[in-house]
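Short-chain dehydrogenase/reductase SDR
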Amino acid sequence: MDFGIKGRWALVCGASKGLGLGCARALAGEGVNVVMVARGREALEASAAGIRAAAPDVQVIAVAADITTPEGRTAAFAAASGPGTAFDIVVTNAGGPPPGDFRQWGRDEWLKAVDANMLTPIELIKATVDGMAQRGFGRIVNITSSAVKAPIDILGLSNGARSGLTGFVAGVARSGIAAQGVTINNLLPGKFDTDRIAATLKGASEKTGQPVEELRRQQQAQIPAGRYGHPQEFGAICAFLCSQQAAYMTGQNVLADGGAYPGTY
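Tokens:
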């Protein structure tokens, strides 16, 4: 299937590894020019080089910056500021805040979580959505979390900040931009085989004394699909949401969790 987005420009955040990288690869595979943003320069440059090798006909620009800061956003937009390089696609993504007990979090911890996982995506939407509407095409995909639908008690900071973004998107996606060819959707990952899962398992192993592989087995046994997701699968869903074919989908929360969420709705 031709997604109809070849030659367009995408901004993909948190793109050096994991789910963000999966999205960048999938979009480049559809012929989309990609500006990849992440804080770690070495990993980012390596990932960008891999995409260039796999998709030599597209432009891939790597920007080592913190997208949660005004300076980082300025750097990202400056990277593709030439004629014809306005962003048609924006994939927002920032690392989730740390787990813990809400009794231990103060105002600073909450503000940091809200800034990264709610306000930063809103700033990126604000900076791009009107241009998309004027051109008659736009796709914004926010990588959030399955915890938006099924909150995880130790992830209170993430539950709160990402739920705030979800509520905001529900309104703005259904505003006048919907009739101007612009869609905004949230993509909710469950457990994917990424560095974050590896770090979480390592921490759980150190705390419980159980081997990492046993913890992996236990977790995967709780997922109806019987395994973790792969970043490339996540990227493929993201690319579809950015496609011409997904023009009638907006304001949605698309859950990718191997069936782990037990609800009907």
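The mean pLDDT is 94.
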